[in-house]
Amino acid sequence: MSEMLMLTSSDSIEINRYEESIRNSGRSFNWVLVRDTLRFLRKSKIRKSNLVSKYGLKLVTQYFNKLEDQEGYDTIEQVIVACLDCGDNANPKKLYEQLKSKFGKDSVRVQRIHALCLESNNQLTEALQIFESILKKYPSDALSMKRQVAIFKGQGNLTKAIQVLNAYLQIYMCDLEAWLELSSFHISFLSYSTALYCLEEVLLNAPINFVFYIKYAETLYCLGGNENYNSAVQYYTHALELNSPTEMDKLDHPPTFLPAIYGIIMSIYSLCEEGYQLKESQLKLMEWAQNNLLTITKKYSSNDKINLVKHFIDSTDIFNKE
């Protein structure tokens, strides 16, 4: 359920501009620039913990009176989470006391922050108790449910994590990251059919993201059987259609569609191993995938990797099979 998953290119450009401006400010602390940067991060739901903890801490401790009342406390929450992400447990305690003195210990926001601090100190039982008490009052509190899932996952209690995540998705059905997380839990239990259902929800929410088509195809391949191998080839091919650079020769890095090429080769090879009568189009696709994989590897990799890829192609070759 990563918040960075859906980062747009425009957001990425904007945050890079903010970071560069902060670096260029030198030794002087431009509190207005830092305030605007943190404000943008909150609005865009981007998590840049190192940046926020480094500059935001100084903002809320030395320039807090310059911030508007509500924004000041929003910024404190943001800085607390960033510091906890960076392993700083001391400063969040001081800032938590500031929030508690303002809103009182019974405030839901204050209780959440308290639970996060406990969680960071590995006091997981106490943290879970706070999240549970919040959910009794507010059954649809998303953050509390997400933190429960994270704690149960960290403890290795995936069964409990699945239960909480199922309850969460009954309320927040369009949370793409939650469906992805649930699919990974089911894959851990080798429950590929259930994982496919979760990934179908992901595809409905992000129909042009090639990464999710590859993920779906990989799960189909793990499920096995001629029908699933055939479907996997189709999804791998569609991933290629969504992510094929128009000017391959000008790329200065390996293309990102290599997993799809590997997937096509393995799926067609597995069909052949099952005795399936391959179509002419599948044979041509296999030949294309092998040739492109070797060409790309020769362009971007060392001789050792080229030899590995040649061995892979030889071991999955269906044209010179004895």
| Oligomerization category of the chains in this entry | single chain
DSSP strand count: 0
End-to-end C-alpha gap: 47 Å
Beta-strand percentage range? under 5%
Outline = globular
Number of helices: 16
The gyration radius over C-alpha positions equals 25 Å
> In sequence order, what are the helices and strands, one letter per element?
HHHHHHHHHHHHHHHH
The biggest beta sheet, please?
A: none
Uncertain stretches of 5 or more adjacent residues: 1-5
Content-based structural category: mainly alpha
What is the percent of helical residues? over 70%
- What value does the average pLDDT take? 92
Characterization of the model:
With 322 residues, the protein is mainly alpha-helical. The chain is 74% helix and 0% strand. The chain has helices at 9-24, 31-44, 49-62, 69-85, 90-103, 108-120, 124-137, 142-154, 158-171, 176-188, 192-205, 210-223, 226-242, 258-273, 280-300, 303-315. Helix 3 (49-62) packs across helix 4 (69-85). The longest helix has 21 residues, at 280-300. The protein is globular. The model is unreliable at 1-5 (pLDDT under 50).
Task: Name the descriptors.
single chain, 322 residues, mainly alpha, 74% helix, globular, disordered N terminus
Summary of the model, kept short:
The chain is an all-alpha fold and 322 residues long. It contains 16 helices and no strands. The relative contact order is 0.05.
Please write out the topology:
Blueprint (H helix, E strand, L loop, with lengths): L8 H16 L6 H14 L4 H14 L6 H17 L4 H14 L4 H13 L3 H14 L4 H13 L3 H14 L4 H13 L3 H14 L4 H14 L2 H17 L15 H16 L6 H21 L2 H13 L7
